[in-house]
Amino acid sequence: MEREEWLHEGTYYQVNASGTDMVPDDLRDKYKQWIIKQADKELELELDWHEKIWSWHQDLENRDIPHLFFNTYSYFHRFAAEQMVRPQWGSSYIAPYDREYTYYFWLKDQGFSTVNEHSYHYGVDAHQAWANFLQKQVDNSG
Questions:
Q1: Contact, 84 vs 78, CB < 8 A?
Q2: Are 71 and 101 in contact (CB under 8 A)?
């Protein structure tokens, strides 16, 4: 919810609200202004995406379509911090309000390393561990 790609001189640059992205010098001022605006929009974006995912979940439930949602890095931390009413996801969403059950942090806590020190991406071994974790969730939900 806080990531974008910008096309600049034929190259796409991924930016996010972490403030650590590498952009060309002529995009730095634009990036700094974008970061400032993201801080103000963070709660609004989180609430908006929460509602969209909740609506999608309800639609899938109404159609009797089994599904499992999980967070990869971002999670709905404002709901935890501000004690907002949390809907009941059942076994259809793995800990949507808990950082430790996001893909990235769960793997980090299991001792996996990213493919390089400046990356948020894991290798094959970590993907297999996450797949095994997801399979357990599916097996336990039935």
A1: yes
A2: yes
Question: Is 30 found in the same domain as 97?
Answer: no
Enclosing domain of residue 133: 66-142
Q: What is the pLDDT of residues 97-114, one digit of tens each?
A: 999 999 999 999 999 999
pTM listed for this prediction = 0.73
Q: Of how many residues is the chain composed? A: 142
Q: Indicate the DSSP class of residue 67.
A: -
For 7-40, letters b (16+ CB in 10 Å) and e give eeeeeebebbbeeebebeeebeeebeebbeebee
Look at residue 81 in the predicted model and tell me its pLDDT: 63
CA atoms of 12 and 32, how far apart (whole Å): 17
